[in-house]
Structure to design on (1392 residues):
């Protein structure tokens, strides 16, 4: 079992109950892990001719997984190993890696490596470096987009250009332990520029929560919650949004200006 | 007569005339009447004491005479009156009666009709008035003569009428019978003239023999006659006759003693005559105390018969034995029965005066009696004995399919119908099945025999199930039914051979696809029925609550009858629904297995397997079992004691679950049905293109029938176009606009192909081969492009769907991660929060429960069509939900947040992470075939080993011929190593599958064999034995692989005996059953014990049974009667 660094809001001390519980989780995880997941992955590897990882072999360490992801030739295998790794980590630690796995499904391959590096940094406790890594990637991506819009006609640009919302969401998640304000700013970009993205609901929820914590900006947060509920009334985070809204109204907050999306309303 | 008040002379004359005519008319009528009545006494006079003779014309003549007389008299009377009523005579009589000068009245009448020139009308009228004043008022005095004559007429006629009536009445009163007879004849003179023919004479005994010297009584039936005459004559005697009175239609008479033949006949007065009969004197028989015993062969099952006299003829089954015994009058050596050719069939020696003998006839014929010895006088031998032997007929067997079909359905199950009949009884009935592969190779016959227990008619309805026989599509199945009777031989009858074909691959696929489409519709119907059942159960629950009926620990309060019946009816319907779900699953499984048997379309098989899985998860079997249990309990009357089981609300909730699962399956079924329809049209288009290509050569060569063949293809294109149109509509309904448009494009191509086909056919008919070939080629090109367009449309459609599902899964993964993070934050707060914050944290945890439910709903909707992925996610979401609920429950129960709730929250977070991982993994699985099963993997492995072994075999063969060549030693060493490696691989495989060492296991045996071969090769043996061993090992490897993959027939086929037929108990049918008589229903008491659904089944069964009685073929031959 690897050593675990300190993370904001959570402390693992050797011998503590949390450690024992974590060990228990580790023991339980094989139970929770689906056999079909592994068999599906095995089937994947048989198809592409890569060496087949044995189902009962230990997952690669995170650093090796990231190394695989950073190399275009091994990225596919890296994705497989990433899934195995994420399935064996404790819940708190697994979430960023799973987010990385999801990101790998929806962004160009060349974005995956730096994103993985950022997650690794965060995993090892270097949250600041993690945030820098991801912001660097964002800057490069946006610079590339501005420098070479490509042959895509303007009318199709929004449809064809890969969405940076997943990167933004990852960046926001990595920024939260370091600087919540930075995380809010990043989420503001998601809410404003990517209202149709999959990342919008959670980004809107967390941004609204951040705004509601500031009395001056609370009205904006309330408005944003209402915007979220109108757009995605059945979304899984909608109940939490309703709860926050009720709470805010109960405190006397009234709707005000909020960072709203640029595009027209779209039903879920 | 009323006074007359004429105003003119003309009127006066007219009045007189009218008066006279009236009187005369009355007189004439009376005359006619009186004359007619005369017919009665006339008839009395003529009838005589014996009544009218049949055929007598007298009644008719009397009528004619009387009518003529009446008519004549009436005419005479009228003519006389007419003479009286002439104007001149009346005028004369008026003049005489009024003492007027002759001609005065007549002159005045003339003047009244018109005055001449210079005559004064006034004077004429004055003159008329003067005459009128002198004429008396009574007209009867004016026409005196006429009045006198008419009075006479009236008097006479009246006297005639009165007289004849009086006479007639007098005759009736004095001689009523004669009078009635006379008048009856007069009432129907035609009937007297043409009487109905009488019945012919019937004479007994007719031609007969009687002992010599007896007086034979002849009886005659002579209806309608009063006497007959019996005539007879005998040789050497004068003919005689005797009149016999007939009473009540019969009579009898004795003939003289019968010493010689007498010919006799009977004649009736009406001319009827009988035949001429002959009575022959008979001497007594030679035999007395004669006993004839007939023993029938065992196969007839007939008991022996005993006759005390000799019958004239006998019909006997072949194998019957006759035993004759008796006594003769006199002495002789033996009594014989002789064949028609004179040979002795039976010789019964005499012992004293008794004889006896046994004989088994072997041929039909007339056998004459003969006496060996001196024939005594005054006796005679019996008439020859006619024997007809009835050979045993073989059984008649009829075999057919239910419905007369000649092709197996895709399920490869076919009900058969065998009817076997025999004149004496059946021993067994057998069904023989021979299969013939597409290559013509026949299997060994498989037979299944059923004992018939001597029944004369047997009806069997087995169901032939070939689904597990591994037959190839296009195979032929030949079926024959045979039956044997119990006769020595035995007689065996066979049915005509029934030749059935298995559907070819295309038909199997088409049938399977059609089944999938039907299944989609059926699932919707099943879901609707489940919904209705759920509603009804909820209604029952509401009614129960509204009426205050509650469930308690001691049982339900009694429901009223209607409620109970309503509930039971609902339960029965839902029980049937559950069975229907299970039946649908089984039907899909059978159809899929038929595809497996032909190794067809793995994609379609996978799709069907997934649909079966959905139905299995819907829980049809479990639901059916539960409902059956409830119905049994209801039948036992325990529903009141088992409140929980029969609580409508509880049942409704459970039914809702079934409905949910069925509705979840609907989308997947619809998708599968669309996909099947897509594949079907694509395959059809490709097939058409291929057929057009095949036709090309014929079109170019101008072959006969090419135009017609082209027309037929064009018709198929039209049919395909309709299917494409329907498919396009369905795609549009499903929201797949893109695919629908591409389908329309394919239709356009097909339209072009059809046009080209039409032109090609036309050109072919006109003999323009060049144009026909060119247009045909174009048609083939267009058809191919249409097929390609359809294929690409289907692939795009599939990809679009897959992309949608993947996108939904990705979103689901991200949403799960969002919730995991929320849970993580909450969990952190659990760590530090005290009991004071329990309520707040509980509220947030409850909100998270709703969030997880939303996630589950979204993933369920999104992955409805994703099969296995959806199921796994559903389980994971359920686990996450359970964990969050445990956390909330812990808080609700008062636990400290940092204790149990904290742990549960961690589990929930992990579970939500797992949902995300599963969803992401599912993205890879969408659109991919399911991973190979263990059997498939093993089959592939064995196939690989077989390939290696084949290479080794070839190397061994090569080395065996080049043993001394350079490098042979090294090659041999390599060969040994390879063979040992093969042994090791097979051993590992055996170990992996868990076979024990030393146990009989094919893999281990093959491993040992491979090692033995390796040892032989290592010893330097490369001979025929090694080669043969290697070949055998290769064959076993291939066989093992094929048996796992079910890859079709092998050279050495090991047939699997057919399983047991569904064999109902063979019982004898009641006599007369198959001749249209009805089988009675069970008693009302028995029916009352059944549920309505069961009663309906019983009624339907008996109805079918009774209707089917008229369809059963009659027996093949009449069973040979016993001794006749």
């Amino acid at each position: 079992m690897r050593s675990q660094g300190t993370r904001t809001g959570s402390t693992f001390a050797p011998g503590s109950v949390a450690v024992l519980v974590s060990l228990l989780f580790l023991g339980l995880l094989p139970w929770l892990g689906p056999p079909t997941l592994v068999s599906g992955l095995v089937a994947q590897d048989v198809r592409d001719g890569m060496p087949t990882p044995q189902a009962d072999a230990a997952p690669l360490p995170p650093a090796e997984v990231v190394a695989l992801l950073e190399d275009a030739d091994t990225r596919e295998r890296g994705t497989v190993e990433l899934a195995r790794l994420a399935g064996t980590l404790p819940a708190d630690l697994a979430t960023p890696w799973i987010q990385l796995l999801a990101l790998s499904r929806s962004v160009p391959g060349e974005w995956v490596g730096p994103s993985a590096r950022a997650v690794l940094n965060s995993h090892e406790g270097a949250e600041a470096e993690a945030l820098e890594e991801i912001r660097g990637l964002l800057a490069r991506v946006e610079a590339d987009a501005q420098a070479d819009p490509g042959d895509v006609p303007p009318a199709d640009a929004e449809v064809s250009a890969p969405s940076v919302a997943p990167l933004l969401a990852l960046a926001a998640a990595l920024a939260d332990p370091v600087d919540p304000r930075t995380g809010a700013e990043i989420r503001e970009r998601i809410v404003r520029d990517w209202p149709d993205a999959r990342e919008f609901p959670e980004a809107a929820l967390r941004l609204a929560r951040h705004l509601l914590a500031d009395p001056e900006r609370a009205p904006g947060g309330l408005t944003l919650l209402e915007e979220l509920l109108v757009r995605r009334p059945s979304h899984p985070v909608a109940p939490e949004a309703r709860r926050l809204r009720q709470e805010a109204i109960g405190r006397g907050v009234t709707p005000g200006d909020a960072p709203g999306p640029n595009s027209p309303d779209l039903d879920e | 007569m009323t006074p007359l008040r004429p105003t003119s002379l003309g009127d006066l004359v007219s009045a007189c005339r009218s008066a006279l005519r009236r009187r005369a008319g009355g007189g004439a009528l009376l005359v006619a009447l009186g004359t007619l009545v005369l017919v009665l006494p006339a008839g009395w006079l003529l009838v005589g004491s014996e009544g009218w003779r049949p055929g007598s014309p007298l009644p008719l003549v009397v009528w004619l005479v009387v009518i003529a007389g009446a008519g004549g008299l009436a005419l005479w009377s009228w003519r006389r009156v007419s003479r009286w009523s002439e104007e001149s005579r009346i005028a004369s009589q008026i003049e005489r009666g009024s003492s007027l000068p002759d001609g005065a009245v007549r002159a005045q009448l003339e003047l009244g009709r018109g005055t001449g020139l210079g005559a004064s009308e006034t004077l004429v009228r004055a003159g008329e008035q003067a005459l009128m004043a002198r004429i008396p008022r009574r007209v009867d005095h004016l026409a005196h003569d006429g009045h006198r004559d008419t009075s006479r007429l009236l008097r006479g006629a009246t006297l005639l009428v009165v007289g004849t009536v009086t006479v007639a009445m007098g005759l009736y009163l004095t001689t009523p019978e004669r009078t009635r007879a006379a008048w009856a004849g007069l009432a129907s003179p035609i009937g007297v003239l043409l009487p109905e023919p009488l019945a012919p004479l019937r004479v007994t005994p007719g031609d007969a023999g009687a002992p010599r010297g007896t007086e034979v009584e002849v009886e005659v039936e002579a209806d309608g006659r009063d006497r007959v005459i019996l005539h007879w004559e005998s040789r050497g005697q004068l003919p005689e006759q005797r009149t016999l009175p007939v009473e009540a239609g019969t009579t009898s008479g004795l003939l003289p003693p019968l010493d010689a033949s007498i010919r006799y006949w009977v004649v009736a007065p009406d001319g009827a005559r009988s035949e001429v009969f002959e009575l022959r004197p008979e001497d007594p028989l030679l035999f007395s105390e004669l006993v004839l015993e007939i023993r029938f062969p065992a196969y007839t099952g007939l008991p022996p018969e005993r006759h005390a006299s000799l019958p004239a003829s006998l019909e006997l089954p072949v194998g019957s034995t006759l035993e004759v015994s008796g006594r003769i009058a006199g002495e002789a050596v033996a009594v014989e029965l002789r064949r028609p050719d004179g040979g002795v069939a039976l010789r019964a020696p005499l012992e004293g005066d008794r004889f006896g003998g046994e004989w088994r006839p072997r041929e039909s014929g007339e056998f004459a009696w003969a006496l060996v010895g001196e024939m005594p006088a005054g006796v005679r031998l019996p008439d020859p004995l006619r024997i007809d032997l009835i050979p045993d007929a073989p059984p008649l067997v009829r075999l057919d399919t239910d419905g007369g079909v000649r092709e197996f359905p895709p399920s490869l199950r076919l009900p058969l119908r065998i009817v076997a009949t025999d004149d004496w009884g059946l021993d067994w009935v057998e069904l023989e099945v021979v299969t013939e592969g597409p290559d013509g190779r026949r299997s060994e016959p498989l037979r299944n025999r059923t004992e018939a227990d001597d029944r004369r008619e047997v009806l069997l309805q087995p169901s032939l199930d070939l689904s597990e026989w591994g037959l190839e599509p296009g195979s032929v199945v030949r079926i024959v039914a045979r039956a044997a009777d119990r006769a020595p031989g035995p007689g065996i009858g066979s049915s005509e051979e029934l030749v059935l074909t298995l559907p070819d691959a295309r038909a199997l696929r088409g049938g399977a696809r059609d089944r999938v489409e039907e299944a989609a519709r059926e699932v919707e119907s099943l879901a609707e029925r489940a919904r209705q059942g759920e509603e009804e159960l909820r209604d029952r629950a509401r009614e129960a609550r509204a009426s205050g009926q509650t469930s308690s620990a001691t049982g339900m309060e009694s429901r009223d009858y209607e409620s109970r019946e309503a509930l039971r009816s609902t339960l029965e319907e839902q029980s049937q629904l559950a069975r229907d779900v299970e039946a649908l699953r089984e039907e899909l499984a059978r159809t899929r297995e038929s595809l497996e048997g032909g190794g067809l379309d793995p994609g379609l098989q996978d799709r069907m397997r997934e649909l079966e899985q959905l139905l299995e998860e819907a829980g049809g079997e479990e639901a059916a079992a539960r409902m059956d249990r409830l119905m049994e309990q209801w039948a036992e009357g325990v529903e009141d004691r088992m409140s929980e089981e029969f609580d409508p609300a509880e049942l409704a909730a459970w039914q809702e679950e079934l409905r949910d699962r069925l509705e979840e399956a609907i989308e997947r079924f619809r998708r599968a049905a669309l996909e099947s329809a897509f594949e079907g049209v694509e395959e059809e288009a490709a097939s058409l293109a291929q057929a057009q290509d095949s036709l090309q050569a014929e079109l170019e060569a101008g072959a006969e029938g090419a135009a017609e063949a082209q027309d037929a293809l064009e018709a198929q294109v039209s049919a395909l176009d309709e299917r494409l149109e329907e498919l396009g509509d369905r795609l549009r309904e499903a929201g797949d606009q893109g695919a629908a448009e591409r389908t329309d494009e394919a239709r356009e191509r097909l339209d072009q192909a059809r046009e080209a086909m039409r032109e090609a056919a036309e050109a072919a008919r006109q003999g323009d081969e060049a144009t026909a070939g060119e247009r045909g080629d174009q048609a083939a090109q267009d058809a191919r492009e249409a097929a390609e367009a359809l294929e690409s449309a289907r692939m795009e459609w599939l990809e679009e769907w897959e992309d949608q599902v993947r996108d939904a899964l990705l979103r689901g993964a991200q949403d799960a991660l969002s919730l995991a993070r929320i849970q993580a934050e909450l969990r952190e707060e659990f760590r530090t929060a005290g009991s004071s914050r329990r309520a707040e944290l509980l509220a947030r945890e409850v909100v998270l429960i709703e969030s997880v439910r939303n996630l589950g709903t979204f993933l369920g909707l999104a992955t409805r069509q994703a099969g296995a992925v959806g199921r796994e996610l559903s389980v994971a979401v359920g686990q996450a939900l359970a964990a969050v609920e445990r956390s909330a429950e812990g808080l609700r129960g008062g636990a400290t947040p940092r204790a149990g709730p904290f742990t549960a929250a961690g589990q929930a977070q992990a579970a939500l992470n797992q949902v995300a991982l599963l969803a992401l993994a599912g993205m890879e699985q969408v659109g991919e075939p399911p991973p190979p099963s263990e059997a498939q993997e093993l089959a592939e492995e064995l196939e690989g080993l077989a390939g290696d072994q084949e290479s080794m075999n070839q190397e061994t063969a090569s080395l065996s011929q080049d043993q001394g060549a350079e490098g042979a030693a090294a090659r041999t060493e390599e060969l040994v190593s390879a063979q040992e490696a093969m042994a090791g691989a097979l051993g590992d495989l055996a170990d992996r599958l868990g076979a024990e060492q030393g146990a009989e296991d094919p893999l281990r045996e093959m491993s040992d064999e491979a090692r033995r071969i390796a040892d032989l090769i290592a010893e330097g043996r490369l001979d025929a034995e090694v080669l043969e061993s290697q070949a055998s090992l290769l064959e076993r490897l291939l066989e093992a692989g094929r048996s796992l993959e079910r890859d079709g027939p092998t050279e050495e086929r090991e047939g699997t005996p057919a399983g047991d037929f569904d064999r109902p108990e063979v019982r004898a049918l009641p006599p007369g059953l198959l001749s249209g008589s009805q089988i009675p229903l069970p008693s009302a008491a028995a029916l009352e014990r059944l549920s309505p659904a069961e009663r309906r089944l019983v009624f339907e069964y008996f109805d079918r049974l009774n209707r089917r009685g008229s369809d059963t073929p009659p027996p093949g031959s009449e069973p040979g009667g016993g001794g006749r």
Observations:
- The first strand of chain B starts at residue 202 and ends at 204.
